[in-house]
Amino acid sequence: MVAIAYSVAFEGVEARLVEVQCAVSAGLPGFSIVGLPDKAVSEARERVRAAFGSLAIAMPSRRLTVNLSPADLPKEGSHFDLPIALAVLAALEIVPAEEVERCLALGELALDGRLVAVTGALPAAMAAAEDDRALICPRSCGPEAAWIESVPVLAANSLRDVINHLTDRAPLSRAEPGTVLDGPAGGCISEVKGQERAKRALEIAAAGRHHLLMVGPPGAGKSMLAARIPGLMPPLSPREALETSMIHSLAGTLSEGGISRSAPFQEPHHTASTAAIVGGGRGAKPGQISLAHNGVLFLDELPEFPRQVLDTLRQPIETGEVMVARANAHIRYPCRFLLVAAANPCRCGFLADPARACSRAPTCGSDYLAKISGPLMDRFDLRLEVPGVDFRDLDLPSGGDTSAQVKARVAAARQIQADRYRDHGPHRVNADASGALLEEVAAPDDAGRALIHKAAERLGLTARGYHRILRSARTIADLETSDKVHSHHLAEAISYRLPFVAGG
Asked: Which H helix or E strand runs over 489?
């Protein structure tokens, strides 16, 4: 007899259906798993044996063969334990085979039969919904998978609970979705003393998802400003929250099945490897740029990152997705993020401070910022110098708009963009606009056209730089609820593209 259970294999954020076939045949007693399993899947034999022993289920004195189909698709992870166990139980006629076929299962088995949490429950629930099957998973994975309301999610504590459910002795109830979690608390932007120009740049960046580079001496407040950007961004739409949570589910970073509607904020250290930033390693897991999808990626001390790591960011910034290529896997992950970077003007950090004059100025600054390649520098829509704050200004009371006030303006501008790009496929914000669409939505008036042409000649703008100014100007106009892009919008956008004094 051949019994069939179903599970999934992960290819990036996509969960591909896997048919787990079990055949009981005559011959020497044995238990083999075929179908391109990795080490963790092959070891499922011993975990299933031990779990059966804890339930007093005897393995037959016959040959058991489990095939994971399609056989040419690599199978990785311990989540195949439960579907393999169910296929064997159905082949031994301990549970009804037709009930097993109606379900998609994933979960790791402990030696005493308990079900251990695994990653990827949310993409697995999506696959179950597309194939019109129920999902059986460990209890701790239930709240996460239950966010897909169209699929019955049955969360069990142990293999015994699953057997009792399939034999109608004790049916499992449907799992409830986890709670909506609050995002990281970054403080209020009004707490930042001075830096009004930088605050304005943060507002523009958050409104149109424009990449931002801040250069200034140590203690100028660059990291403090960056930490407040998530508090300026509107809540993620249901679609964006699901996209982001699918990636975090694969990475195993969802807490108790909770899904956040706040924009994610990732800040890797400058010693992080290429695989940690872009993705890769064992199993081609998502990297920091994918975990920051629909949110913020903050790179502090940008020139200290290895040149190879920085150059790998160039294509993902443009395309919004990254291909992680390994010998046995080619995985595509989404990564539409807002890149915020901070850097000192030179290695000592006090290039512009006359009281601490650098003996190597000005070559110290130009050499230091030259670690950021020209093509990467060109991808920053907004570039500004953040001056140091005098200690006397720190005694002044907090002032300016609060994060809530700025967030309201950003949300209004984002809604204008959502209406504008509703019928334009993947485009969601002004940073996505390109080609004829950009020329249509960001066409300047006559005075603005003359201004940007003069700026392009004076600053030696590339085509990419020219278009990025148009996108920034369109966002500035949206913040003012202006239908047209006027010359003063372009003037402000151009002011954020001026080269740094140190030669950056």
From this structure: helix 487-495
Could you tell me whether strands 265-266 and 296-299 are parallel, antiparallel, or unpaired per DSSP bridges?
parallel
Query: Which two tokens mark 129?
Result: 């919904």
Q: Which of 227, 224, 215, 85 is nearest to 156 (CA)?
A: 85
Q: Is the dihedral of CA 435, 441, 447, 452 positive or negative?
A: negative
Q: Report helix angle 196-208 to 403-420, nearest 10.
A: 30
Instruction: Answer for the pair 85, 95: CB distance below 8 angstroms, yes or no.
Output: no
71/50 Cα distance (integer angstroms): 26
pTM of the model: 0.89
Token representation of residue 219: 């203690």
Tell me if 105 sits within 8 A of 129, measured CB to CB: no
H or E element that contains 104: strand 103-105
- Write the pLDDT tens digit of every residue in 175-190: 999 877 666 566 889 8
Q: Nearest-CA neighbor of 376 among 321, 316, 297?
A: 316
β-strand partners of 444? 485
Interior CA angle at 380 toward 376 and 384, to 5°? 120
Computed on alpha carbons and rounded to an integer, the radius of gyration of the chain in Å comes to 27
Given a contact cutoff of 8 angstroms between Cβ atoms, the answer to whether 38 and 79 are in contact is: no
Distance from C-alpha of 439 to C-alpha of 16, rounded to nearest angstrom? 40
The structure tokens 């608390």 sit at: 185
Residue 503: predicted pLDDT: 38
Specify burial of residue 303 (Cβ count, 10 A radius: 0-12, 13-18, 19+).
buried
- 115, 107 contact by CB (below 8 A): yes
Cβ contact 314:376 at 8 Å: yes
* CA-based nearest residue to 74, from 105, 38, 108, 127: 38
E-strand ranges in 162-305 read 180-181, 212-215, 259-260, 265-266, 279-280, 285-286, 296-299
pLDDT digits 0-9 by tens, 26-84: 988 999 999 999 999 999 999 999 999 999 999 999 999 999 999 989 899 999 999 99
Q: Token digits for 332?
A: 């595509």
Give me the residues paired with residue 10 across strands.
15
